[in-house]
C-alpha cells in the first residue's frame, strides 16, 4: 500500500521560504507524477505543481515565480520550496501521487496533509 | 486557464436521497475530469476518474458522467458517511490543473 507523508516546519515567518518534503513508502517514486496541493483554512483546493520522477515539472502560473519542486529518487522523496511567503500562503499542504490513463491524470494517493502557518 | 464551476455550492439532503452535483468547464476538457470527496480534517479521496471510471474500493452508489464541458457526480442513495465536500478537477490542461470550488453536502 502506497503511503505519502509530508514533513517540515509548521511555522514560517513572512518573507522566508517554506520547505516541505514528501516521503513515499510502499512503492517506488519512479513512473509517476507527484503533486503538491494546498488548502487555506476553510477554503477549497489549489494545485501548486507537479514533478515527474524524471525531473520535469510544471507549476501553477500564479505561484510559478516563487515555487520549486524537486525529486530525489534515491530517497523516494520529493520536495516543495515556496519563497517570499505571506499570510496568504497559510494552508494545509498535501502531497499526492498522480496516476495517468489515456491522458487523464488523477491523484489516487494523498498524504494526510500538514498545516503551515505564516506568521512572525 | 480552464475554470471549473460546481453547482450547487452547498446541498442539504437526507439519507437515502439521490443527489446530483454538477461541474462545468470553461472549455472542452474531453473526459479529463476527476471527482474527490473530502471529509473534515482529512485529505481528499479519489472517487471517479476520467469522468465515469469508479476508483477501486469506492461504493457503486457513486457514479460519474459527462464529456466536453458538462459533468455530473451522482450518489444513488445517500449514506451517512457520504456527507462531505466534493470537488471536481480537470487534468486536460497539463500546464495547470484546476479544481472546482467544492460542493458541501449536508444532512437535512
Description:
- The complex is a heterodimer of chains A (120) and B (108).
- Chain A has 120 residues and is mainly β.
- Chain A has strands at 3-7, 11-12, 18-25, 33-39, 46-52, 57-59, 67-72, 77-82, 91-101, 104-110, 114-118.
- In chain A, the strands form 2 sheets. In chain A, strands 2, 4, 5, 6, 9, 10 and 11 form a 7-stranded mixed β-sheet that branches. A 4-stranded antiparallel β-sheet of chain A has the order 1-3-8-7, with no helix packed on it.
- In chain A, strand 4 and strand 5 (46-52) form a beta hairpin.
- The radius of gyration of chain A is 14 Å and the shape is globular.
- By secondary structure, chain B is an all-beta fold.
- Chain B has strands at 4-7, 10-13, 19-25, 33-38, 45-49, 53-54, 62-67, 70-75, 85-90, 98-99, 103-107.
- In chain B, the strands form 2 sheets. In chain B, strands 2, 4, 5, 6, 9, 10 and 11 form a 7-stranded mixed β-sheet that branches.
- Chain B is globular, with a radius of gyration of 13 Å.
- The relative contact order of chain B is 0.34.
- The interface between A and B is medium-sized, with 23 and 30 residues.
Explain briefly what this protein structure is.
The complex is a heterodimer of chains A (120) and B (108). Chain A is mostly beta strands.
